Fold:
Amino acid sequence: MSNHSWLDRSLYPFQSQYFSHPDGQIHYLDLGQGEPVVMVHGTPTWSFMYRHLASNLQTSHRVLVPDHLGFGLSDKPKRADYSVQIQAQRFETWLESLALESIHLVVHDFGGPIGLAYALKYPHKIQSLTIANTWMWSARGEVQFEKMAKTLASPLLPFLYRWFNFSARFLLPQGFADRKYLTKAMHQQYLAPLAFGKREAPLAFAKSLLAAQDWFANLWDQRHRIKDIPAQVLWASQDRFLEAGYAERFASIWPDKARIIRFDKAGHFLWEEVQQEILPLMRQFLSQHSLA
Structure:
């Protein structure tokens, strides 16, 4: 395992587990007992983002939170394929290795397409879905995306990511509606895993926003496969990265069934900003859709 001397155990007091994937060691949390809740992160985050939810839910559920290869405490091989499609395959391999019959799935950011790709393939294994500030469709033609596409195609992008840790240093703070929720100590836990020479995964995710649009579109075309799964949409209204209408677009998969819960004062990283409000909602939703 790599040296994780930067890890603040007062903020992240969990025992680590590792899954040996052919591409490298994938770190994950496996806490508590009960019906499994699987939480999937995006970029430039890792399982650290779900620490509050994980530590609270472990009293009633088995909580499983992986770090995608290239993020958090997982290996960061220089030449691995970190595209979102390959990360989705790795996620599936890890989750299938646990041989779980059913799971509650929680997704955010790039964790949306990654986790939902699994749900579309194995809908019979999904007990409930919690969808937060993410997407599962092509953004082609959207004004915001078309503006961003020029930046994504720029040769400056790799330079910014590799040399300046652009996503963790600059984009992450922009994702907060109120920066007081991003303390210096917390920010360090997002910066440190992406040390110099270990920033290929966030860069690949940024590039995937251009390269994977057909794959995202294909996921949306299969949405009927998850229409019978109980779902809730948690949406932070002050998201600077995703369009507000995305919440309704998700809810349209479950007409009259999926509830949208909005957090008007939270930004993209709502798990950090409204953790106290989210916890009772999650407990209620999971209990409502328990098999017990």
